[in-house]
Structure formats: structure tokens, C-alpha cells
Amino acid sequence: SIYYPKEVEINDLIHLEILSNKLKNLGGDDEDRQYLSMPNLQILKIPCYENLFKIKELPQGLIKLSIQGGQFKNLIEWGVIPGSVQTLEIVKIAGLTRLPDNKYMEIWFASLQELNLSGNDLSSWTNLIQFLPFTHLKTLRLEDNNMLLFERGVKDRERLEPELRTLLMTAIPSLDSVTL
């Protein structure tokens, strides 16, 4: 027999995954400000839907945030991401060419251990290096970004990729894994 709980409270949610749908709103509206009132939420996987940028508060206990697909203009503000996040995936966001130039990123992302920025339009190594001096970062994924497109093609990439990996691991000594 299958047991079905009588009632599931939204406040009890620990893991929420909403992908591949036509989501327009997540959370409550308060004069064009959205918030998630799920205090126990630890894992959130959502698409970069058209009103995501309106979210001004995420649960403080969040440890994994995954935002996939959509447009940069809809992306949540970086400062809204709680410092408790250990795994951050911002993947396949059209128009995401640069990361924030904010000297407080390391404080905001004090717990960050895994960062996946694959499939975006990132185009500046300098911007990436300035964004990344996180002391606890262990895993970095950057596949399919414009900055990895080399003028001379595959031979250029084969020659330069190990040097870029070494540069990143030198800039961030805590890194164990870099995927280009």
C-alpha cells in the first residue's frame, strides 16, 4: 500500500524543483516585490522566468540554487542570493555576458563551494577572475561560454585550456576541479 500524507505545508518544503514550464510568478506579490515564504527550503531549482528579477528575498537556509534557461533581463539580483548557498548554478542564461563587479561578492557567497556558469554568454576572463576570489570554492564549471571560443579553433583550445585551468586554480587555491 502507498501512504499519502494528509497535508503538505509549503513551509515544510525542503526541496522545490520547477523546470520546463511557463512559470510567471513564484511566491507572494507585495507591490511588485516577490518573496518566498518557505523557511525550511534548502534546494531550489527554477527556470529564469519572466518575473524572477522581482524576487527580493530567498530563504536564508538555502544551500543549493539552480536557475536554468531564460533571459538575462529576468535574472534574480545577485545580492538576493543568501550567503548560505553552497552550490550555485546559473546555466544557459541568454545575454549573461558579465558577472557583477562587486567587491562584496566574497562576503555574500561566503559558503559557496560549487559554481556552475555553463552555457552562458560570458566573454571576459578579466571579469571572471575579478568575480571569483572565493576562499571556499572547490568546483567551477564554465563549459559553452563565449570566452572559451578561440580564434584558431580546436588547436588553440587544446594548447590554452591547461594554462587557463592552471591560472584559475592559482587565482583560487581552494579549487579542486575546473571544467572548461
Q: Could you explain the architecture of this structure?
A:
With 180 residues, the chain is of the alpha/beta class. 16% of the residues lie in helices and 21% in strands. It has helices at 105-108, 125-131, 154-171, and strands at residues 15-17, 28-29, 34-35, 43-48, 55-57, 64-70, 87-91, 114-116, 139-141, 177-179. It has a 7-stranded parallel β-sheet with strand order 1-4-6-7-8-9-10, with helices on one face. The protein has a 3-stranded mixed β-sheet with strand order 2-3-5, with no helix packed on it. The chain is globular.
Q: Notable features of this structure?
A:
about 180 residues; single chain; seven-stranded parallel beta sheet; three-stranded mixed beta sheet; alpha/beta; about 15% helix
Strand-helix topology:
Blueprint: E1 15-17, E2 28-29, E3 34-35, E4 43-48, E5 55-57, E6 64-70, E7 87-91, H1 105-108, E8 114-116, H2 125-131, E9 139-141, H3 154-171, E10 177-179
Parallel strand pairs: 1-4, 3-5, 4-6, 6-7, 7-8, 8-9, 9-10
Antiparallel strand pairs: 2-3
